[in-house]
C-alpha cells in the first residue's frame, strides 16, 4: 500500500506542480504590471509608423522635417464573419488641410512560429497598398524574420487592392505576385494572406467612408 | 561534499578557466546571433545574468526536494519563468532593443549554459556558492559576448555602441556584422584564447 502511494505519479510530481503554480502566479503578477506599459509602447510605435506606411519613408520624413504632422484618428471597425465578430484597429491619417492621406489597418494572425502583428496602409480611395510594417513577430531567425526587412516589405508598396495577392517561389512576374522568402514560404504566405484578408474585410467599409466624407464636403 | 569547489573558486572559474563560451563552448546560439553590435550583446549578457542568477538561487534553495528523474523539468520550469520575466521587462522598458533581439530573449530558455550551471553547481551546493557561481559565469559570458561584439562592430561599422571611432577612410567590412563574421570572429578568438592558455601552461 505504502509503495503504491509512493509510486503515484501525481505525488511524485508535487514539487513540479507547486512550482508551476507559484511561477504561474508570479508571471500573472508581472504581466498585470508590465502589460499596460508594453501596450503603450506598441501604440506609440504604431502612431509613429502610420505616416511612414501611408506616405513612404521619404515623404514622411519630409513632413516631419517641415514641422507638420499627419492627424491620426484611431477607430475600431467590427467585421461580422461566419457569425463571429472580428475587430480591426484602423487609423485614419489626414493632412493638416483636412485632406485624407490614407488609411492604416492593424492586423494580427498566426504566423509560422507565433502571432504576427502588422500595419498595412492604403491610399485614401483604397485602390493601392501604400506600405507594410511588421509590428511584432517571432519567426525563425535568419529565415522567417526577413519579413521585417525593407527589401521584402517594399514589394507590397503600390500593389493594387482589387486583385488578391499570391506568393510565388519562382520570381514574381505578374503585378499581383509576391516573391516568397526562400526558406520561409510559410511566413511569406501568412503575411500575404493577412493582407488579403484585411482587404477583404475592410476594403468596402473604408471605401464607403471615404466617399461619404467627400459627399459631406460637397 | 568536501571536494566541491568553494564560492570563490566557482566565481573565478566562471571568468576564464571555465569560461562558458571560450572553454565550455556553451550558449553559442546567442553568442553568434546577437554579437553584431555592442548594445544587443550587452543586453543579452545582462538578461542571461539575471536568469542565471535567479535560476541558480531558486534551484539551490530547493535542491534537497529535487527528485533525480524530475530535476530537468524543475530546472526548465524555473528558467522559463525568469526568461519570461526578463522578456516582458525588456519589452516594457527598452522596447526597440526587445524588438531587435526578437526571439533570442525567449530562446535563453534553451541556453545550455544555464541548465548546465543548475545541474553542475546549484543542485549540489548552497545558495551562496550558487550565487557566486552565477555571477562568475555571467561575467565570463558577458566578457565573451562583449569581446566578439567589439571585434565585429568595430570592423563591420567602424565604431562601438553606434559611435564612429575608426578614421572615415576605413572601408566597413559589412561581412563582419553578417552571420559569417560571427563564425570567423568566434573561431579566431577561440584560437587566441587557446594559444594564450597553452603558452601559460608551458611556461608554468
UniProtKB/TrEMBL annotation, chain B:
The gene is rnfE. Keywords: Membrane, Translocase, Transmembrane, Transmembrane helix, Transport. It is found in: Endomembrane system. The keyword Membrane applies. This is Electron transport complex protein rnfE. NCBIfam families: PRK12405.1. GO terms for cellular component: endomembrane system; plasma membrane. It is a multi-pass membrane protein. It holds the Pfam family Rnf-Nqr. PANTHER family: ELECTRON TRANSPORT COMPLEX PROTEIN RNFE, ION-TRANSLOCATING OXIDOREDUCTASE COMPLEX SUBUNIT E. The chain crosses the membrane at residues 41-62, 74-95, 101-120, 173-196. Coiled coil: none annotated. It comes from Desulfamplus magnetovallimortis.
